[in-house]
Design goal:
Elements lengths: L20 H8 L6 E2 L6 E6 L3 H18 L4 E5 L2 E6 L9 H11 L6
Antiparallel strand pairs: 1-2, 2-4, 3-4
The structure holds the ligand C[C@H](O)[C@H](O)[C@H]1CNC2=NC(N)=NC(=O)C2=N1.
The site of ligand H2B has 8 residues, from loops.
């Protein structure tokens, strides 16, 4: 379990700078499977599942996690896959919260 997955998101009210590419890359080491967008404003991971029901259940679990932490992903899903992406809207870029959520998503039982 990464150190990040033990943390909780802190409210982000804007007015703080987004992480630099270097800072994001350093945190990415703790979030296996996630990649940084070309402009370094979001992180994304693609998950595969054996069927539609498992994809749907996974997206639902990510949603529950997001509601609990009040930090929300963009997601697309369909038969056998889900794509989850995090960015912090208020700062139009990355915050440690995005990496905390990625680590927590990686800890879900179906996130293989
Ligand atoms: C009040 C509430 O905490 C905020 O509006 C949260 C909700 N979820 C959020 N999710 C994401 N990804 N970015 C945000 O800036 C954000 N803000």
């Amino acid at each position: 379990m990464s150190e990040l997955s033990k943390k909780n998101c802190v409210p982000c009210s804007g007015g703080v700078s987004s992480l630099s590419r270097e800072e994001a890359e350093a945190l990415l080491v703790q979030t296996k499977g996630w990649s940084l967008s070309d402009d370094a404003t979001r992180i994304e991971r693609h998950f595969k599942f054996p069927d539609f029901a498992t994809s749907l259940a996974f997206v639902d679990k990510v949603g529950a996690l997001a509601e609990a932490e009040q930090h929300h992903p963009d997601m697309t899903f369909g038969w056998g896959y889900a794509s989850v992406s995090f960015s912090t809207h208020k700062i139009k870029g990355l915050h440690e919260n995005d990496f905390i959520m990625a680590a927590r998503v990686n800890g879900l039982p179906d996130a293989t």
